[in-house]
Each structure stands twice: as structure tokens, then as C-alpha cells.
Design brief:
Elements lengths: L2 E2 L16 E3 L2 E3 L3 E3 L12 H14 L4 E7 L17 H5 L2 H9 L3 E6 L12 E2 L13 E2 L2 H21 L3 E6 L4 H6 L14 H19 L4 E9 L8 H14 L3 E6 L20 H7 L7 E2 L6 H9 L5 E4 L1 H5 L3 H6 L17 H5 L28 E5 L3 H12 L3 E5 L8 H5 L8 H14 L3 E3 L6 H4 L4 E4 L3 E3 L12 E3 H5 L8 E5 L3 H11 L8 H6 L24 E6 L11 H13 L3 E4 L1 E7 L2 E6 L2 E5 L3 E4 L3 E3 L2 H8 L5 E2 L11 H14 L1
Parallel strand pairs: 1-3, 4-5, 4-13, 5-6, 6-9, 7-8, 9-10, 10-11, 12-13, 14-15, 14-17, 15-16, 17-28, 19-26, 20-21, 20-26, 21-22
Antiparallel strand pairs: 2-3, 18-27, 23-24, 24-25
The structure holds NADP nicotinamide-adenine-dinucleotide phosphate and iron/sulfur cluster.
Length: about 675
């Protein structure tokens, strides 16, 4: 039986991406899969309604197939004590409404079955050998032969439960360093029985799992195996072993191979913004040459152009996008309708998706506040359109204007400078953060399409604003100038002057402030000019042909050359960079260490003169010899207009940095802007 979806009409430019593909007993309507993501929606009130809304929105956006977050096949494979499981047939049936609703929108849905192995944050976690993972405090117990046979059975039962619930198939998680992946490499598998030692023995467990699932669920059930296409750990699998495993998984009955890149403990960034787009496309390409079932490329693929290029060049048969489906659930639909320039692009910041999951919050999205909160937003035009003045064209102002105009309000956006973007223009200068340009493009195109009136180079007077139904003050922030003697010395620059290119820093630089902007500025300063994307591989010790064991050919933490000698300072005695995001902070800290950046915490600033920056550290005076001193010491709100409006009795709502400068970032600015527009 072939379960057929309605095919998308194609626009020409993205023919391959939008073309259907047979996968096992199914025909996918296009080549885009929503990759598995843990959302934590299952732990919310009314979890089925919220999960249904989440997946349905992506199905309406025409993704061919959605893969859920991981469900453990048993009690010892959970990610943590609250982690979702698929081992109870009755509980699994509660998921049926999600499957039905996704099918009603013409998409397919598969459940991911994930045994966390030694990454399970529980007492009594299990692994091939009792070796603790560097990212988990729990030491795993070595699985017995009986444990392994029981777990194979558990994978089959969990898959049967998913099938009974209405899922079209399962994705068996065999990458990212989880249990099945742990069996495949000697790094974590030191066994001497039939489940360890030779390549055949190390591959036996995943192969037996696939066979058992196929036998239990029959031919009309989709089996996707997520294979580790590059482990990115020392003594990881070489290409020939990955290819051998792929071929055996195909023979065992899998319909499709999805690819995972890098174990969670790898010291190489794999998905965050420092990774160039498409950096991993060579890894699935190696596998695709050796199997006849479809192969999926994943990680840092966030535009239809790149996706099309990967497919046309033959690197993969399908594209998996996870975070891009948070950023814009209608990615495929917009591509098909010739509206690719209206796609809200995932900027790989991880701030509201992974970082939220790590802090036990529901996954969201910095550029799309609706993600994970679908039931909280209105998606239809308002009955009574109003006139809205938005003052300030940074992230908060643009988000308000774009959302309000989309809902049907008449919006005028005032911006004092000659261009939109505000702090986003500065953020995008940091290495890898040029993805913010996509956010600007998204807002601009959507505002234009929805008829926003732009008034650039305009600081409105109180009179200009008095006729509007609502006035929004989104005037942002200005860099804080700390009270340090000599702060007006010519060698002092603000982060805005450095990142905008107004001032070029000298060879020796002191950065005052070790927050997110201090780190970004330090990275900007040490990065050699026009560093090509190809240098990503040499910087992090990655074999760009993906043939060496673990796809590494150097030390991910090894030193690299630096454009400048930089010292970053802060007054607090905390570890510098403590406030950075969980999933990106380690990358920035390691990148700066590799470039030889010095960190000084617990300093007092005594003064600035021709010799440099005078500090006291542990009671001892010291001079940081610097040609340039960059102020990254936070921001102050810019809200002078509000005071003038209040004096005239004109009400206004203040959002973003103008409301609260501390802890401001694009995440809060966009969220506040969109939610305010929803309230008009
Ligand atoms: P921030 O994170 O608040 O850091 C400001 C830094 O300036 C701190 O290191 C602070 O350390 C120092 N400072 C504050 N007042 C000072 C004073 N009067 N004199 C000298 N030093 C002073 O602010 P930010 O770096 O400007 O970042 C703004 C926002 O953007 C933050 O919310 C941040 O999270 C976000 N952001 C995040 C990232 C990222 O995660 N990658 C990147 C960019 C921006 P001491 O007080 O200890 O000296
Ligand atoms: Fe992408 Fe950032 Fe949104 Fe996560 S929060 S989906 S990384 S844009």
C-alpha cells in the first residue's frame, strides 16, 4: 500500500525540494522533514491540545513529515525522570488526536524512539560499558546480555504502541551519542561479548533493533534510522564503519536514513550560529553513495536555496529542518507559493529553543514568539483596525509594526536614523551573527507587504503622535558610559562604534564588560578579516571530507591565530561569560580561549591614559597596555519621548530596551513587540 500525499505545485526554482519522494510504503509530498525536537509541551497543562496545535501548524505549512521529540522505549532510557516514554500502550493512544490532526492537514508524522543510554540524567542509567559521559554526573551501569535483548524488545513494543496510536512510523535514534550510537564505537563500548569488540559485534544491537521493529510493525510502517554521520569525538567511527552500518541498517529493513552530526559531548559546535550554513552536507553525501534508501541531510540548513542546492548536487535526498520549523512553520508553503523572501529564518542562536529546554522551559523561538505557544495567538485579521504609531525601528519596533500590520491595523513606523534594525545591525557584525540580516529582511518584507508607512530620519514630535489610537515607544538603548577617569580619552570606543566600523581597533585591546556584547566584540576583534567559512573546519579540527575516525583531524580546543591581543575584564569575581546562553556560551568561551584572549574578573577600573587601562586586581595595581579600550558595559534606556508625551497626557506603551535596558536582547524585544500588537 502506498499512502500518498497531495503533491505541491512547484515554482521552478525549488523543483527538487518540492518534488514528491517515495519512502517505503509512503509518498512524501516534498523533500522537507521536520526534525525531532524536544518541546516540553508534554509537561504543560492540556498537553495534547498544545502539541496538536504545534504539529498542525507545521503540517499546514506543508512539511511532508514531522518527527516528534524522543520517546524512551523503557524506564531506563529516559532523558530525565520526567522524560516522555512510549512503553505504555494505553498512554500512547492519548497521542492519537495529534496524529489524526496532522494527517488531516496532509502531512505524515513519525515518533522518535530514543534510548538516552549514558546521557540519561537518572540514577541507574545504562550503557554498553560503565563509562560516565562528561556531560552527565550519573555513572551508567553496564548492560547485561539480557538487558540488551530486553531493550531490543522494548524498541519493538514502543514502535508497535506508536503504530497503534496512529503514527506513520518511527525514527530510531542512533546518533548524537545516545545508547545505540554508544554501542557502535570503542570509545564507549569496551565489551568483549557478542555486543562489543569487532565492528560486526558493535553494530549488532542497532541492527537487531531495526529488524525487531520491522518484524513487529510490518511492511506498511515507516522505519527511519538516525545514523551518526560524524561522531566528532576522539576514536569515533571512520567513514568505512559508518557506511557499513548504513548498509546493514538498510538490509535490516529501514526505509530511510536520517543523519545526526556530533555527540552531545563533542567539543565542536554543530548547530549554533558559528557553524557555517551547510557545513555538514558532506557527511550524508558519503552515506548516500553507498545505500539505495533515501538519505536525509540535517543541521544548519535554514534556507530553501541551500536545501535545493544540497538536493540537486546529490548530497542527500531529503532535508531535515528542526529549528527552522520553529522559526517559520510555513517554510515549505511560502517556498511553494513563491514567497521565500517572507520566510522567518532560523538564526541558529539557540536562545529560546535549546536554552529554554535546558532550563526546563517550553521550547520557543527568538524570531517567532508563536512557536510552542500556538494556542495563545490570534491568526485572523482584527474586526476594528486601529491606527498605530511605532517609534523606533529596532527589533521591538519592527516586531510590533510587522505583527500589527499583518493583523490589519494601519501602522506608521518612525525611525530616527536612515535605516531600520537598531541594535540588530550591530549584532549582525559579530562573527556568524550575520544571520540577523535575515531577521531584518523578514521584518522589512512583511512590513512592506502589509502596508506599513515608514518614516526614516524622523524623530516625531508630540504633535505628530497625538492623532493615533496607540503610540508605541520602542526607542531602544544607548551604550552605557562608565564613570572611569579618562573615559573620554581618544583610545576609548563604544561597542557600537567598533561593531558599526566607525572606529577600527588597534592591535592591543582591552574590553570593559564581559557580558554577551563583550564576548561578541572580543570575537569580532580576534577574528581575522574575511575569514572564509572553510576555516571553520581547521579552527575546530574537523575533517571536511568526513573520512577520519570521528571526522576529526585536529584538536577542537587547539590554539588558532588571532588578529589582535585582547583582554576582557569585569568587576564581578564570577567566571566571565557566566550569563551567556547554555548552548552557545561554551562555544564562545572556547573560541576566545583558542584565540588567546585573556579574561580578568574581579577588577576595579582606576583610569585610562596613554599607557592604557589602569586596574586594581587583588589589591595590586596593574596596567593593561592597550591601543583601544572598548566599552561593553551595558546600556541605558532611551525614553525621552515618553516623558514629553506624558506631560501632554498622551498615553503610550513602552517596550524593549526603552522599557528596561538590563538583560535586553532580541528575544525579549521581539516577544514584547508581537504580544503588544496582538493586544490592540
Ligand atoms: P550585560 O550582559 O549586562 O553585560 C554588561 C557588562 O558590563 C557586564 O560584564 C558588567 O560586568 C559590565 N558593567 C556593567 N556596568 C558597568 C559599569 N558601570 N562600569 C563597568 N562595567 C560595567 O550587557 P551586554 O553585554 O551589553 O548585553 C546586553 C544584552 O544582550 C544582555 O541581555 C545579553 O544577554 C544580550 N546578549 C547576549 C549575547 C549572547 O548570549 N551571545 C550576545 C550579545 C548580547 P561588571 O558589572 O561585573 O563589571
Ligand atoms: Fe532558531 Fe534561535 Fe529560533 Fe532556536 S530560538 S529556532 S535557534 S531562531
Amino acid at each position: 500500500m502506498v499512502r500518498q500525499q497531495t503533491n505541491s505545485a512547484s515554482t521552478g526554482k525549488y523543483d527538487r525540494l518540492l518534488s514528491p519522494l517515495r519512502v517505503g510504503a509512503f509518498e512524501l509530498r516534498n523533500r522537507v522533514i521536520m526534525g525531532s525536537m524536544h518541546t516540553r509541551l508534554e509537561s504543560e497543562d492540556d498537553p495534547i491540545t498544545k502539541q496538536t496545535a504545534f504539529y498542525v501548524e507545521r503540517a499546514r505549512g506543508e512539511v511532508a513529515l514531522a518527527i516528534t521529540g524522543g520517546f524512551s522505549p523503557n524506564a531506563d532510557g529516559v532523558m530525565d525522570s520526567e522524560g516522555p516514554r512510549m512503553d505504555d500502550a494505553e498512554e500512547a493512544l492519548k497521542l492519537t488526536p495529534i496524529c489524526d490532526a496532522v494527517h488531516a492537514e496532509g502531512s505524515l508524522i513519525c515518533a522518535q524512539i530514543l534510548h538516552a543510554g549514558r546521557y540519561a540524567k537518572i540514577e541507574g542509567c545504562v550503557a554498553p560499558s560503565p563509562i560516565r559521559a562528561p556531560i552527565n554526573r550519573f555513572v551508567p551501569r553496564e548492560m547485561t546480555g539480557a538487558d540488551i535483548l530486553r531493550t531490543i524488545e522494548d524498541f519493538a513494543s514502543a514502535s508497535a504502541n506508536a503504530q497503534a496510536a496512529g503514527f506513520d512510523g518511527v525514527e530510531i535514534m542512533g546518533s548524537e551519542g545516545y545508547l545505540l550510537n554508544e554501542f557502535t564505537v570503542p570509545h564507549t563500548n569496551k565489551r568483549t561479548d557478542e555486543w562489543g569488540g569487532s565492528v560486526e559485534n558493535r553494530h549488532r544491537f542497532p541492527i537487531e533493533v531495526v529488524k525487531a521493529v520491522r518484524q513487529r510493525c510490518g511492511p506498511d510502517f515507516m522505519i527511519i534510522y538516525r545514523i551518526s554521520a560524524a561522531d566528532l569525538i576522539e576514536n569515533g567511527a571512520p567513514t568505512e564503519e559508518i557506511i557499513a552500518l548504513a548498509q546493514k541498517i538498510e538490509a535490516a529493513g529501514a526505509d530511510m536514513l536520517n543523519t545526526g552530526i556530533g555527540w552531545h559531548e563533542a567539543r565542536v559546535p554543530t548547530i549554533a550560529y558559528p557553524v557555517p550554513r551547510g557545513a555538514w552536507r558532506g557527511a550524508p553525501s558519503n552515506i548516500k553513495q553507498a545505500v539505495s534508501i533515501p538519505v536525509v541531510a540535517s543541521n544548519r540548513i535554514n534556507t530553501p536555496d541551500l536545501a535545493e542546492d544540497i538536493l540537486v548536487s546529490g548530497d542527500a535526498d531529503l532535508i531535515s529542518m528542526a529549528r527552522p520549523m520553529l522559526a517559520d512553520p510555513h517554510f515549505v508553503r511560502k517556498t511553494r507559493e513563491g514567497r521565500a523572501d517572507e520566510i522567518n529564518t532560523c538564526i541558529a542562536c539557540n536562545q529560546a529553543c535549546l536554552d529554554y529546554i535546558f532550563s526546563e522551559k517550553v521550547a520557543g523561538c527568538l524570531v517567532n514568539p508563536r512557536a510552542g505557544h500556538e494556542t495563545e495567538f490570534r491568526n485572523t485579521p482584527v474586526d476594528v483596525p486601529k491606527s498605530i504609531a511605532v517609534v523606533g525601528g529596532g527589533a521591538a519596533g519592527m516586531a510590533t509594526a510587522a505583527e500589527a500590520s499583518w493583523l490589519g491595523h494601519g501602522v506608521t513606523l518612525f525611525e530616527g536614523s536612515d535605516k531600520l534594525g537598531g541594535q540588530l545591525n550591530l549584532a549582525s557584525a559579530a562573527p556568524g551573527k550575520d544571520e540577523f540580516d535575515e531577521t531584518l529582511r523578514f521584518f522589512k518584507n512583511n512590513m512592506r507587504k502589509n502596508g506599513v508607512t515608514f518614516k526614516l530620519n524622523t524623530r516625531p514630535s508630540v504633535d505628530d503622535l497625538k492623532e493615533f489610537d496607540h503610540v508605541v515607544i520602542a526607542t531602544g538603548v544607548t551604550p552605557r558610559i562608565p564613570k572611569i577617569p579618562g573615559v573620554d580619552h581618544p583610545k576609548v570606543a563604544t561597542y557600537a562604534q567598533i561593531l558599526s566600523g566607525e572606529i577600527t581597533a588597534g592591535k592591543r585591546v582591552a574590553v570593559i564588560g564581559a557580558g554577551g556584547i563583550g564576548f561578541d566584540v572580543a570575537e569580532y576583534l580576534v577574528t581575522l578579516p574575511a575569514q572564509p567559512d572553510a576555516e571553520f573546519y581547521s579552527t575546530w579540527g574537523v575533517d571536511e571530507k568526513f573520512t577520519t575516525p570521528g571526522a576529526l583531524n585536529g584538536d577542537p580546543l587547539g590554539a588558532v591565530s588571532s588578529a589582535r591581543q585582547v583582554t576582557v575584564l569585569q568587576r564581578k569575581s564570577d567566571k566571565p561569560g557566566k550569563t551567556l546562553g547554555v548552548s552557545t556560551g561554551w562555544i564562545l568561551r572556547n573560541a576566545l580561549r583558542k584565540h588567546g584572549v585573556e579574561m580578568r574578573a574581579g577588577v576595579s577600573y582606576e583610569g585610562i591614559d596613554d599607557a592604557g587601562l589602569h586596574i586594581t586586581l587583588d589589591g595590586k595595581p596593574e596596567v593593561i597596555a592597550a591601543d583601544t579600550i572598548v566599552l561593553c558595559s551595558g546600556q541605558e534606556s532611551e525614553r525621552s519621548l515618553l516623558d514629553a508625551l506624558e506631560q501632554k497626557g498622551i498615553g503610550a506603551t513602552v517596550i524593549g530596551g526603552a522599557k528596561e535596558a538590563s538583560e535586553l536582547d532580541a528575544l525579549r524585544a521581539i516577544n514584547e513587540g508581537v504580544r503588544l500588537a496582538q493586544s490592540f
